[in-house]
Amino acid sequence: MPELLDQHELITVPSYRLITMRDEDNDAGAGLDEAITQADTVVVASTGYELVISCAQDILPVSVHLEVWSARPADADEPGWSRPRAFELECPSALVVLSSPTGGALDASLPGGQGVYALDVVYRGREQALAARRHVLEHEDTVSHVQAVAATQPGGFERYRIRMWLMAPLPDEDEDE
Q1: Cα–Cα nearest to 123, from 33, 51, 50
Q2: Res 3 pLDDT > 80
Q3: pLDDT recorded at residue 147
Q4: What is the distance between the alpha carbons of residues 67 and 56, in angstroms, rounded to a whole number?
Q5: CB neighbours of 62 closer than 8 A, spacing ≥ 6?
Q6: Which residues are CB-neighbours of 136 under 8 A, at least 6 positions away?
Q7: What is the pTM of this model?
């Protein structure tokens, strides 16, 4: 039976509408432009070394909940959440960084150690976040309206959940050649 080993939550205003997650030892730039372009269309994409989430807006808080499991958890059929998108992420140091460029960040140690992790990513609240953004921008005093909207919805309307679990050992460097 899969066990929840650890969990973290990042609440941030997503700079450039981006949230990324990668192992601290992975090169942040490898294939990133392509993944960002793809995420603009399908919300979530990956290079295999870095996960990219394209948020719906960039003026209100966004919540990203990270769950680390001992094995693949049972599917959570929860109303309002998107269908899960599956990815793999190489984690050579077992320390992932979940962040927004020039914004908030958190580091999370992976209890399963280094390896290739499977990820399921779901989201909800994107339309509500866009509607709240439009409402805020209709007012001259946007700062106080952002604060008022953020106060009514702690963590924001826009929410993402990443579930990850150790899937396999890292590939040998010789196999890449």
Answers
A1: 51
A2: yes
A3: 74
A4: 22
A5: 11, 12, 13, 14, 19, 55, 129, 156, 158, 159, 160
A6: 59, 60, 142, 145, 146, 149
A7: 0.90
- 8 Å CB contact between 112 and 23: no
Q: Enumerate the β-bridge partners of residue 46.
A: 51
pLDDT over 60 (residue 175): no
Instruction: Name residue, tokens 């919805």.
Output: 153
* Distance (Å, whole) CA 136 – CA 143: 8
Q: Round to whole Å and give the CA distance between 157 and 127.
A: 9
C-alpha–C-alpha distance, residues 121 and 140, integer Å: 36
Is residue 40 classed as helix, strand or coil in its secondary structure? helix
Tell me the C-alpha to C-alpha distance, in Å, between residue 111 and each of 27, 31, 63: 22, 27, 22
Residue 137 in contact with residue 149, Cβ under 8 Å?
no
